[in-house]
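Request: When convenient, would you put together a sequence paired with its structure tokens?
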Amino acid sequence: MKTKPYYKNWIWYYHLIACLLFIGFLCWGFYLSSFVEYWYSKNAFTNYDILMSFFSVQVNIMTIVWLIIYIINFDKKEKHGIITDRFRMAIMNLNMLVFLIFWMGVVYYVKSGEDSIVNYGTNQIICTIVTHLICPILLFIIYQFNMGNERYEYNFYKKWDIYIVFIYAASYLAYVYIRGELYLQNLNTGRYPYPFVDFQNLFIGNSVWLYVLYLIMTFFVWFSLQHLWLVYNNNLIQSIKYKRFVLSII
């Protein structure tokens, strides 16, 4: 429960610093990639488009928007909407996948011998580590202090927050497929942001539509398990806060 005005609350400053970090490194990455180092192509717009196609970059942008709204409305209390704890769980769920994609990508490229983060330039490595590793960790740390204000049931399919995650994931998959088809028509590079969504070289089988179904089922389970863990984490924090409250009045 927030009892202090925002300018006296360290949690507000934490969110502000996290927001500035997200914005700073994301903008720096776009600037370097499109106008200075040309990470993926000699064309500035193609570099911009490839960066925008990454799940991690889109989640970073959504997180920035959420942080800005949260910072502005810090002293307000809402039961529904973008500044609630449930929306924070949705943002955290998406950022957890960004974190896991980073580590899975590192392992995949090291084992496959393909282009990996170790072959990136120094600035690209810094941007990648900050946006994929440090920023999600910062959100997880503050999650431990902001959550636990109420106890949640584990029937989260009856709540709206998990469907934000599902809808975005499905929309992203459709976007990647359509974008890849458009790039295929123009024979350009950077058609697919990740190997597992390269619909010209499927990981499993020969049917694109069956493969899409596999992906939907996989990420439905994946996001559900992450949400289950977030609910458990929230309830654990709530129990600790409640015990401290009981001890304080004894």
User: Anything to note?
Assistant: The radius of gyration is 20 Å. The mean pLDDT is 89.
